[in-house]
Request: fold
Amino acid sequence: MQKSSRKKGKIRWSKLYSFSCFQPHTIDTVPAQDLIGKIGFSRVVFCNQPQLRKMKPYKYANNSISTTKYNVATFLPKALFEQFRRVANLYFLLAALLSFTSSPVKRETLIVPLVIVVGISMIKEAVEDWYRLLQDMNVNNRTVKAHAGNGIFVDKFWRELSVGDVVKVNKNEYFPSDLLLLSSSYEDGACYVETMNLDGETNLKIKRCLEATLGLNEDEEFNQFRATIRCEDPNPSLYTFVGNLEFQDQTHPLCPSQVLLRDSKLRNTDFVYGVVIFSGNDTKVVRNSTRAPSKRSQIERKMDKVIYLLFSVLLVISLITSIGSVLFMKSDMVQWWYLRLQDPEDPKPVKSGFQQFIRAFILYGYLIPISLYVSIEIVKVLQAMFINKDIEMYDQVTCKSVEARTSNLNEELGQVEILLSDKTGTLTCNQMEFRKCSIAGISYGGALNEVDLAASKRMNNDVEANRFSIENSGSTSQIFEMFEFSLADSSIQKAVLEDQEGLDFLNSGNSRISNVGKETVVKGFNFRDDRLMNNQWIYRSDLFNVTMFFIVMALCHTGIPVEGDETDKLKYEAESPEEVAFLIASQEFGFQFCQRTQSILVLKELDPSSGKKVKREYKLLHLLEFCSSRKRMSVVVSDEEGKIFLLCKGADSVIFDRLADNGRAYQQATTSHLSSYAEDGLRTLAFAYRRIDQADYEQWNSIFTKAKTTIGPERNELLEKASEMIEKDLILLGVAAVEDKLQKGVPECIDKLAQAGLKIWLLTGDKKETAINIGFACSLLQQDMRQFHIYLSEEAESNNQMKAMKEEILHQIESSYHVMCTDSDRSSPFALVVDGRALEIALHCDIKYKFLQLASNCASVICCRVSPKQKALITRSVKEHTGSTVLAIGDGANDVGMIQEADIGVGISGQEGMQAVMASDFSLPQFRFLERLLIVHGHWCYKRISKMVLYFVYKNIVLGLTLFYYELYTCFSGEVLYDAWYLTTFNVLLTSLPVISLGVFEQDVPSYVCLQPFTSKGKKIIFLLEPDRGLDIEWHGCILVIFLANMYILSPSAFMEKGYVADITHFGAIMYTCIIWTVNCQIALIITHFTWIQHLFIWGSIVLWYIFLLVYGALPPAYSDRGFQVITESIGSAPIYWMVTLLVVVVALLPCFIHIVIQRWFNPMDDHVIQEMKHCRKDITENQMWLREQRNSQKMTQIGFSARVEAKVSSFEEGLHRKKRSI
Amino acid sequence: MWGGSTSSDSTRVRSIPIRSGQCKAFLSQFKQQSLPACKPVLTPAWVIAIHLLLGFVFIPIGLVTLHASRGVLEIVDRYDADCVPEEFKGNKVSYIKDTSVPKNCTRILKVHKYMKAPIYIYYQLDNYYQNHRRYVKSRSDQQLLHGLKYNDTSSCKPEESNNGLPIVPCGLIAWSLFNDTYTFIHGTAELRVNRKNIAWKSDRDHKFGKHVYPFNFQNGTLIGGGKLDPNIPLGDQEDLIVWMRTSALPSFRKIYGRIEEDLEADDVIVVHLMNNYNTYSFGGKKKLVISTSSWLGGRNDFLGVAYIFVGSSAVILSLVFLLLHVKNPR
Reply:
């Protein structure tokens, strides 16, 4: 391995690359260099001189990073502050403080729950932060070789690095901080860098050191190395850098191409030397990241509102109580001699009224459910546990499962409306596969796509169904006709007959399965066509074209072969994964590219005449490099016979423009193939060649060489011209289509999500063409969609004038919007494709609104060439503009901003870095699990939490209001009916477990029903906390029933056979029993899914109350107070006690029960219908109805696989109709 | 009528792929949220059946209860107004406060029906807020149990001490002890009224000391209610114990004693009572109640009526639902 890479090192890349998009910009950076030393550009780095760094202004932070929220000192104040930002907690703190002045209940009963609640939440915070600390430590403790003096490099922790250190980074290692590149293993000081974590781009970038430091490519050289860098201050801009290097008494200007950024990776280069310029928190990537905001779910926010509401109710009834008490005191109470109010030391009415207010305020605190937050927290942790353990979201390949990293967003999953997705690594595997090709006008590789197949299958099914129905009515002939039509539909029939594989597709229904498993799968090559495979291509009639096609594929690239694990198969490394796919494909076809030297390319190719493998050498005369403006790449080679060819590959439009008149033979056929490939989401490149005469070549060579050696601004222009001269009169060979391989299950998942009503936006750093390809591959785009493109024209971009650019964008947006408005009646959906630069302008505040209006009306939106900051910006804008819940999913460090900004951030825990996962709220091993996460778990969690909150409020209102009603009978004196311990145990012991079981186990519909499109429609249930008048009255009725029934039954006559009369202790215990029963039976009414756990908790809670009464009553009276022997001696033996309980529970719950019944009967919700259908097994017995319901809900969607099938079917039907009419 | 109900337990157990070896089926079902569950669905048949069931359970209970309640005989006699002599009618408060005026009064009660022993005697006070917070907390349970040994009587304010000496029993409740007394004459002989065992046993045994004697009680300038015999320990002062059980509502009865012989129909009972207790200053009412008891307790028609009402409405509802279901089947 070492040897081969040294061999590579000998290639002078600077000679290979005649065009250079990456060459140092010596001219335009000059003005910026003047800024050095001024404000904002004051950084001075002494390289390799540790002793100088201690001086005051040059002392910079070390390289450790910290993402934790708290440290040991700040934890307590900060975490406490966080806790008391919650309204309820604040109220309870207030109540606890007030309880020290005057309290109707024991102080401990207020303080203990508060401490527990706050304590649990704080422990949770601490644990979460601890994990963050561990992660930081893991990063900080990575090692890198750093110069320790005398030319010796030793391992050093990342955190110990400081500015000015010289480090040596090896192949496939991450850069520990922002480095200035000094030299690399290549002689010309170039190195390849993968910046996927920064911008998501997967192609390698070339960085190049200064000529002056080229010599520093051995460890020993650094013994004497001294230099000073003066550069800009730390800033978040990834693509700029201004600085000077003072080295050997000379000043060299520096530019971004000498800077290696932290979190990018060294590739294809054995090692580099660099000097740390920015460390730790000063690095550009850390500066680019935003602090993790604490996210709160909508329900939590709504819950705050509910708490405010309850709080105001509390204030009102406290006020009523205090005013009432003052009024009573002034009028009647003076005459109540038994109260001895006339004593002079007694407080004045106003003051006592105020005291009464505080007392009431504390007393009715039971209205505000203190344990709500902590219960929800427990429930969410358990829900998160279920999400983590779900075996259907377990990836057996990576042995990873879904991880809910923050549990407080579970229910928000069910509310997602807009999905923002990254492309590379999230939707795709970052791996290209050779899928199809069209050579000389013939398309190879499965010609039928899945959409067609699914559509034809559906058609046939429908026809079948129709046939039966019409057969019954007796007109058989007619339907046979129809059936024939559908089969005779040309496109299907031809395809099926032509392609054997089509039948496989039909049988399996999924091409992805049928392709795998028949043969050993070659990574990067997913092509099956017997006409070309296994060297069958030598029997093709157009052998020359086929051969040339393969030769172009094998020679026109910048890749390097690497020895693979198999002896005769090589692996390749190249600038882009497409090239690797092409090289692998050509190897499979028998054109193995096996060696590259400075000027010679060696192929092992199959000789069609002899059928043997021969080694042929091609001389590489020139390489006209690929550049985004040229959109093509060419090589000029001469074969062994001295014939000179120009081999060219590039975007189809560019190639077609440069074809010779006799080279257009296959253009028409190729174009139609191109469009079908594009619809399948394949990325296409056209191949062409040109034979060049020796004389022509000599002539051009001189011009080109002259252009190459020119120095100055006109160089690029000259080169461009020179290449134009030779890249013309091409002969088209065909096109090759590679698939940016989607991850497993991605199209299906997107389809389901689209059916669930989610809007999907694709945000990618890739270029537009790639993004659109993927759009097609994921079914986000389809052929009949109306696409709006918003981009900056080149002149506007070059002018760089803000106003002009803005006007251009505005014009584009407005015209698109106009089209949309006028065309809105058409069924075809709209799609929007935006370029990153244009997006930057479109998101400026004044036109932002218009842009987002346009975007939110489109079925799918694709944003290409967006930077991490822009991703975050889009996320925020979308969130603010639409007000809907936004989920962002990504896998790389470039998605961190977006993930943090979104309401829910999801990270893909792929093989590459962990930054996205660290910043995310949920991490998934595979994109496809998103479907189950959102539709099953999101749905469940949302239902659970909303039911739970609703119920929680209910039960506290029941308790709180009985306290208030009792006040009416005590002249607002503040007497409590219940024993203090009854009240304390209410939320903690007696009613907490059932409600937790509701929040954890409730399932309104089983998971497999959730996943069917039918229920996904019902995802948006009404949040029951929205004022529901009926329920309010029921609650109130229920409380009144509890209260009044007790009142009338228990007073004034005796309640036991022995003639005893109920006093306050019996009254309290009986009433409280009624409350416990009612509240627990109410939850049994709400729950629709009973496992034995629910039964245990609900009925157990009721039993627990009696056990509590027994135990509490058995304590000595000093402790048990009002509970002393209350059940054993008195109420337990009174039949009236049990009868009251039964009556009250039934009467209190009957209205609610009837309400539920009536709602189910006359106004059923989706889940009710499904429950009932499941219950009657209608889904089995009446399958057709079930399916029809499903299909009805499908029609709503505009994107996704099924939508495409739908569109196809309707177009087939139209064609059929037309044919029928013509007959 | 019952035929409409079907089994609602549709349990569905999903098969779980077994991971490493013998994984506990329960744990895995628990984690996969696929525990066998019963999912009651409120189908019309169930709704109708539940309502019918309610009706069939509640109506009999209601009838039995009502019957029991009707079997209880109760004689209520309000005497506070009538016992004030004519000359004091205009100013009842001065009458009750004037210690020189004799407070005795005679009431005649007529028994309408046969009353079976034990017949309970209650006094009923209306508009008397024994549940006022200031009143309820003005007692010291520790002192009641331990007497003078327990010093901290701060909770008894404003009736914790007098002349610098602690009061036993302290507090407003004890201080305002009800002190009307009743003697019942049946024919010529006095009816024997049993005034023992009228308080809860737990109170007598555990809350009021057997060796705690009243001390310094009702010695102040303001005299509230009844006095206590300082020679009888608190644990035996059952009137006090009953009184100390504060009532929950402003209108309440408290037991006075038991008549342990039957009373025939048309018997006439003469009650000699001492109208000592001041309810005039706050407009309260005093009633004497004589009542038999059933297994249910005292007379209480509400419970039975409520049961019958709920039961019959459930039946009506079930009929309504049945009609709806027949008319409009799912």
